[in-house]
Amino acid sequence: MTQTAILGMGHYVPEKIVTNDDLSKLIETSDEWIQQRTGIKQRHYVDFEKEPMGASDLGAKAGAAALEEAGITKDDVDLIIYATLSPDKFFPGDGVLVQAKLDIPAGVPALDIRNQCSGFIYGLSIADAFIKCGTYKNILLIGSEVHSTGLEFETRGRDVTVIFGDGAAAAVLGPTQEEGKGLLSTTIHADGRFADELHCPYPGSKMMPRITEENIRNGDHYPQMNGRNVFKHAVSRMPEAIMEVLAANDLTPSDIDLLVPHQANLRISEMIQRRLELPPEKVMNNIQKYGNTTAASIPLALNQARQEGRAKPGDLICLAAFGAGFTWGAALIRL
Questions:
Q1: Of these residues, 147, 262, 285, 318, which one is catalytic?
Q2: Is 285 a catalytic residue?
Q3: CB neighbours of 245 closer than 8 A, spacing ≥ 6?
């Protein structure tokens, strides 16, 4: 039976590091305040004075690294799936921009998905279906974000601003016949009734004109979040999704070798760890160094875990995400 396997991974983060103390010089906050609420110590930002880059630039670098590790070339890619909430342009999507930057041949399709923090899980689910039915063989899945250009560096927006960082990560997915290896299960969900709890409402096609001075003064173009409600739903929905993929394979949390949750907030990860009764060494957290990189956070954390030897061939890896939409999901992979 054909399963979907990770053939290679890569990630890229900008060199510029922004600490909590750096942010405290711009907005009313402190290292203690940020760490207590989020666990974050620093994040990476694109340095526009040295090298301006959009999300597609970061995504192309991560994609190139993934192709190299997979041992395939740009000519072997059959499909690009690209996830972001911070595209370079209003349109077209970043998928085609990455295609051009990596010189992937004309005719190869590029699919952009907008599932924010759940983007990588949604992308895995889509890629798995294409590979299992034989439509495509080698799929390049990318999650990439440049948040730093869309954050409000004023005290009014600090609850959101302190959380996010820039980064990209990618995986090359392909078929395997090796028994017990590869993507065992995915589950994806959404509940649009909570869309306004975490969103960026402006600009949008429902407004005429789309851009006004009043909306800009009001800060409507910055992300808005009801942090308490997001937290409440995240610590409920993510464990539900994890248990769903485990049950589909007659497994329990104790069978997991490493849980890689979306890096939204260290406190969320810690609560999920307790609910699943997992020891700390079985949960991968790197939000302390990178902040929330949204669609890039899960593959970035997974690739770091692989590089550090925390996720090894044969290990059972569980991925889980929750984010804007609300959308959420989980995946179970045997490396």
A1: 262
A2: no
A3: 184, 185, 186, 187, 318, 330, 331, 332
Residue 323: phi and psi, rounded to 5, are: -170, -165
**Residue 319 exposure: Cα atoms within 13 Å on the Cβ side:** 32
Tens of pLDDT, residue by residue over 261-273, are 999 999 999 999 9
Type of residue at 154: E
First to last CA, the chain: 16
- Rounded-to-integer distance, Cα 269 and Cα 95, Å: 30
Q: Is 44 a catalytic residue?
A: no
Q: pTM (2 decimals)?
A: 0.97
CA distances, 138 to each of 73, 162, 181, 279, 306 (Å): 10, 37, 17, 35, 21
Instruction: Report d(CA 94, CA 87) in Å as an integer.
Output: 6
3-state SS string for 11-54? EECCCEEEEHHHHHCCCCCCHHHHHHHHCCCEEEECCCCCCCCC
CA dist 114 to 121, 165, 332, Å? 12, 18, 22
Distance CA 321, CA 120 (A): 9
Per-residue confidence band for 1, with pLDDT thresholds at 50, 70 and 90? confident
**What is the distance between the alpha carbons of residues 188 and 319, in angstroms, rounded to a whole number?**
12
262 is catalytic: yes
**Largest CA-CA distance found in the chain, in angstroms, rounded:** 59
Q: Which of 265, 285, 292, 303 is catalytic?
A: 292
